[in-house]
Structure formats: structure tokens, C-alpha cells
Amino acid sequence: MSDQLSHDLKSLTIPREVNPETRGRTTRVLIVLVVLAVLAAVGWFYVYPYITSRLWKTEVVATEISLLSPSQGSTELSSTGYVVAQVTAKVGAQLSSRITKVHVHEGSVVKAGDPIVDLDVAMNASAINSASSRVNAARARVGTAQAQLEEAKVQLVRERALVDRGVGTKATVEDLEARVRSLSEQVKAAEAEVRASATDVASRRVELQYGRVVAPIDGTIVGKPAQVGEVVSPTLNVIAEMADFNSMLVETDVPESRLGLVKVPGPCEIVLDAFPDRRYPGETVEVSKRIDRAKAAVTVKVKFAEPMADVIKGGVIPDMAARVSFLTEALDPEALKAKPKPVVPRDAVVDRDGQKVVFVIEDGVVRQVQVVLGPELGGGFEVKAGPPPGTRIVSAPSAKLKSGQKVKEKSE
After folding, report:
1. How far apart are CA 245 and CA 315, in angstroms?
2. b/e map 374-407, b = 16+ CB within 10 Å
């Protein structure tokens, strides 16, 4: 009885030991769950922002590292524009023909009246000879008609004398009078034909002069002129384009809201993108009388204050991009000699890992670049070491912006 009771009690006992195989499988499941949780956390905090930064573009406001000269401390307004020749000409032909000779090339400097191209005028020369022959034939007909008229007049005088003596007939006199009138008209017609043929010759001689196309103004050939063998006509072709470099001005668009800062005449400083180290003194000469509503801006024309011969010699040509600074006072010669310094806007510089950096925009992707800053200058800092002037950078980059992230620019 006691053995049976002991057996029953033992059957109710909960076993303290777990199957080793079951315990191992449970442990592996827990480890896998922990690893997945860690990977999910890493992906959420690190991988996800990295991937999204490359798949979706972040909007940023772009600015640039610019060159600032000491004289620009008196700058009231800056704007960009282009060098534009005010006197230009498109040279065309006044007759349809083929080019036989070209006297100029791109960059040739010519005076008004200098030859540009020669055209084939062989047909015109032949037409002049033909018209001259018609003139000679018409003159011969005039001579013949005049001779016949003189003969008829003599006969008329003779018949009238016979009639007066009662020998001749009045009908003969009337016939001769009619013949004289007819021959007089023939002489007039022949003379008119001579004048018409002579006019035709003169006209064709003028066309012959058009066989040499000449420069209408003093200037420089811009672009490649037409070549030998090309067929030109008065309505279809431009043989060459010319521009008077001495008439070059900088045309820049000034926002309508800031037009009040522009004085005419007023001192300016001109910096060309092609020669960022050079600075030219300028002067405002004209403000357009029309506002561009699409841009809400007004075109302002600025001339170079230096002799144009020196400006042209320095390599300035039409359509160069330029930045104009409108100044409160004329440039000091000593300040003009001082070299401009690269300046980065204050809000474009941020701290990353204890370093001063900017985010350079290259093909829609930002790249973090360290900069070494100098003293404050013109609302920013002088760049002692870093990206060169003209480099596009992000203005006021956010703390989440990372190197390699795709961005798109938006207006401020």
C-alpha cells in the first residue's frame, strides 16, 4: 500500500530537468530575435537615412563663394549681366549669287567699306553687255528715224512750193505732213528706247558693284563668315556678323524694388567671370524705360570708365558674363589695385566634428569640404583654404545634411 502511494505521488511531481534539445532550440530562437531587433534598430537609425538621402532629393538654398574687393565696402547694390556691343551689323548680299572669294575671317578688324566677300557676277557682266548692245541698237534706230524725218521735211517743203505755184497737189502736201508727224513720233519712241536701255545698263552696273560685299561699319567679325562656294541671296543668308567693340557696355538686370539705389551717372565696379582677378571702374549711363514684368527687373547699362582700347586689349569681348557693383562713391585708385579675396557667406559655414565645413553642390550631390577661415569681410568670412571662388555651396545647411546626399536647389 505504501509503495502504491509513493508511486502515485511521484507521478504528480513536476520534472525539474528540461530536454537539452528543446532548451537549445529555444535559445537559438531568442538569439535570432535579439539579432533581428538590433539590425532593425541599426537600419532605422543609420541605413534608412542613408538610403533615403540618396533616393529622395532634399531642397536646399544655394549660394556661392565670391570674390570681394576692399573697395566693395561702399557697395549699395550688386547684380549680374553681360557685356553687349551696342553697335552691330549682320552683313548680307544684295543679289543672289555664289561666293568666289572671302576677304575676312573670324576676329578680323575691318573699317567701313572694306571688302568682306566677292560674288560671282559673270552673268551680270554678260547682262550689261547685252543691255549696252540694246542701247546701241536703239541709238541706230534714232539716227535712221531722224534721217527719214529730215528727208520727209525736205519733200514737204518742196511740195508746198509747188502747190504755191499751182503745179503741185494739196493731197500730196497733206500726205507728207502726216509722214513728218509719224516720223517725229518714231524719233521720240526711239529716243525713249535709248533712255530705257541706258537706264537698264546703269542698273546692271550698280548690281555689278554689289558683287563685292563691303563692311557697313567699323568693327570686328564675330563668328565664322560664309565660305567660298556658298550661294547667298538678299533674304536667306547672313554672310558675316560684325560688332563694334568700342560700343561695348555691360547690361545688367536690377530688381524693380531696388532701382532707387541706381544713380545716373553713378560709380560702379565691373568684374568679369572670365577674369575674376581684374576689376574695371565703371559708370552708369542709362536705365531702360521699360520694366520686364516676367523678371520684375529693369535693364541698366554701365560703361567701362577705362579707355576702350585698353579694355579690348585686355580680352574683353561681347557676351561675357559680368557682375556689377553699384557704389556710393568712386573707386580709389589704391583700393582698385588691391586684389579681391574669396569670401564665403556666414550662414553657409557649419561645424562638423570640430571643423568648419561647407557643403559643395556638384551635379545635384553635396560634398562636405573643410574650410580655413580668415577675418570677417562683407557679411561673411575670408576663405584662407577651401573651395575656389564661384563654387556653388549650400546656404544654411541643416544638421541632417550629409556628404553624398542628393539635393535640388530652390530659390530663396
Report:
1. 11
2. eeebbebbbbeebbebebebbbebeeebbeebeb
**Which grid coordinates belong to 351?**
561645424
Number of residues that make up the chain:
412
Which residue is listed with cell 570677417? 376
Q: Tell me: the pLDDT tens digits for 120-176?
A: 876 665 666 666 777 777 777 777 777 777 777 777 777 777 777 776 677 877 777
Q: Do domains 56-66+341-410 and 92-119+211-243 have the same CATH topology?
A: no
- From the list 378, 344, 291, the residue with the least C-alpha distance to 78 is 378
Going from N- to C-terminal start, the domains of the chain cover: 56-66+341-410, 68-86+244-337, 92-119+211-243, 122-209
Write down the pTM of the prediction.
Answer: 0.55
Backbone conformation region of residue 6, classed left if phi is above 0, alpha if psi is from -120 to 50, else beta:
alpha
For the chain, how long is the longest CA-to-CA vector? 203
Name the β-bridge partners of 368: 359
Q: What is the DSSP string of 194-207?
A: HHHHHHHHHHHHHH
Q: What is the CATH number of domain 56-66+341-410?
A: 2.40.420.20
pLDDT in tens, 302-361: 999 989 999 999 999 999 999 888 887 776 666 666 677 788 888 888 988 888 999 988
* β 407-410/58-64 pair status: parallel
Distance CA 13, CA 342 (A): 87
Check whether domain 68-86+244-337 has CATH 2.70.70.10, yes or no: no
Q: Rounded to whole angstroms, what are the CA distances from 37 to 40, 50, 67? A: 5, 19, 53
Pick the CATH number of 92-119+211-243 from 3.40.50.2300, 2.40.50.100, 3.40.50.1980, 3.40.50.150: 2.40.50.100
